[in-house]
Amino acid sequence: MSLRDRRIVARLVALLAVFAILAVACSDDDDETSSPTTPNTTGGVPTGGTLVFGLEQEPDCLDWLGSCATVAYGHWAANVTTVPRAFSVEKAGDTFEYEPTSLLVGEPKLDQSGAKPQVTYRINPKAVWSDGEPIVSSDFKYVWQQVTTSEDINDTTGYEKIESVDDSKPDIAVVTFKEPYADWRSLFGSTYGVLPSHLLEGKDRAAEMANGYSWSGGPWKIESWNKGETLTLIPNDAYWGAKPKLDEVVFRFVPDTPSEFRAFKDGEVDGIYPQPSIEIVDQITSGGIANANAQYTAETANTDGLWINTEKPPFDDVSVRRALAYSIDRDAIVNRVFGKIGVKRALQDVTPPILKAYGEPSAFAKYKLDLDEVNDLMTGAGWRKGGDGFWAKGGQKASIEMFSAAGNKTRELILQVLQTQLKDAGFDASIELLTPRELFPGHVLIGDYNLLLLSRRVGSFYPESCALFCSKNIPTEENGLSGQNIDRVNDPKVDEAYLAGETEMDEAKAQSLNRKGNRIIADKVYFLPMDPQPNILLTKTKVVGSVEDNPVMGPFWKMWGWGLKK
User: Fold this and answer.
1) Is the whole model's pTM more than 0.85, yes or no?
2) CA gap 407, 404 in Å, rounded
3) How would you write 145-195 as a 3-class SS string?
4) May I ask the CATH class of domain 302-531?
5) Pick among 3.40.50.1000, 3.30.1490.270, 3.40.350.10, 3.40.190.10: CATH of 1-83+216-297+541-566
6) What would the DSSP string read from start to end of 101-126?
7) Is CATH 3.90.76.10 correct for 84-208?
8) pLDDT in tens, 525-559
């Protein structure tokens, strides 16, 4: 599973242009963000043709509400393009913000005058499903009911705060909350969207959608999904907004980043959105990409780092977690991987870069390589080094199983460096590289791991901290392993801060509460940030139009405006 999201734009027409990009990104050692972006747009975008885009991860399913649909590439390619939503995350100056989509007639009305908050959505009368049936309030109600009553739901955050959805008027959905919910715009919005109740009501939604679906409420619809090979989109002729210019888009699944990059260089695919890697960075900085445009940014919706199972020894002890944080030279690792493109220092916060107003930018800054501090923490907690140089206590060695997804050479390198640094600090660390199917159901969700190297992305313009760290979101057998708190943090002070932030409608107060929670996460080392997972979007120069990355919605959110030069 890759939960990373993706911004900078600069043209790679020649080697000189490559270095121009990097000069901006690297000109100031104190600035790890990229230069301002501009979309790759040209006048008179051609119509027709087939665009082939390489995807290095294939979704497990297309049931967007289920835990099987957590592969970000699947969400970007098929959800964002086919599922209608009330809000999307749009560019606003040098940042992003929520904007109502063409599904609605204007901004929804938030009413807090009564005992319980209400939001009224007025649906665009032109909005229809691909079969011509109007999108109606019952479609909103259906999603709410499915999220709160079905098994194996990926994330119920926010939806469980809804008391009712009034669908008595087809063109008006009135949502009543049990209590205030700060991120109400994300509901029916950037993550799940709305689904066609007239086609799914009374059926097994998960089974109906798992292998693809023929309906659409977006500019594209799914023509076919040949598992292991391709996912093909064609225009939705019934879409009421801007119609796609291309005849079809074929997403070709490529198993790993090096293969994906070779396919791009050889002209087998017209674009890629690779997980950032040393290979890609080296190719960009050496001028190894011809006839290509690049967008790059470190201002992402991602938080990459070490997710720590706080229930499993030895990290059920806060002293050991703190010792871990002082065992690692995070800046050296990040600089080694991404230094050439200006990302030279580790993140120091839980909250991703695009949501810095909610963040505590120096929360983890004190955790630098300090083996004396490691020794003090470990001996103070009753650990002693054996003849093999590893810490032990009560006959148990301080052994650490580090997990990540297979097929990513950069992650392998990071884990190897971590393994060496941890060994020097007295920890016996092993590496396990598994497929997402093996990794998550088999280890992460059930808590059978110590450390997980993973990038996680917010699905809305909100930090989603409670989803990640509140005790109610710990995956358990009782909730069908549906929670996202894979670190199994169970801390009343964390709950207090983040839960209060969830219900605080005053933005400044919500930001303050989130920062408070972040400070606790850092103090107790429930997580250890590494880097912001820079986003890199590469397309051939023949791909023109609204080619514009979005750190939350992904690279295909404006694909309706893409075209191919003849």
Assistant:
1) no
2) 10
3) HHHHHCCCECCCCCHHHEEEEEEEECCEEEEEECCCCCCHHHCCCCCCCCC
4) alpha beta
5) 3.40.190.10
6) -TTBSSSPEEE-SSSS-EEEEEBPTT
7) yes
8) 999 999 988 888 999 999 999 999 998 899 999 99
